[in-house]
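Minutes, project huddle
Topic: does the predicted pose make sense with zinc ion bound?
PN asked that the exact inputs be recorded in the minutes so nobody has to dig through chat later. Recorded below.
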Amino acid sequence: MIPDYSHKEEHIMEDKTLKCKDCEAEYVFTEGEQAFYKEKGFENEPTRCPNCRKARKQQRNNDRNSFRRF
Ligand SMILES: [Zn+2]
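Predicted holo structure (tokens), as shared on screen:
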């Protein structure tokens, strides 16, 4: 008898490798991050690698708080 694996849980997520649309670097969209995105209700996967995301975030912060220094 062949074991039936079709009932394997389908909501288990796996790490995904994505390509950054800015620098074209490949990066891992981890299972934990996917869960985080889901929890936040984001339907889209990130399009940028963590470095580019950080850079953009910093840029935004700089624009907004250019007068404030840490
Ligand atoms: Zn990038």
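Observations noted during the meeting:
- The mean pLDDT is 86.
- The chain has two helices and two strands.
No decisions taken; revisit at the next huddle.
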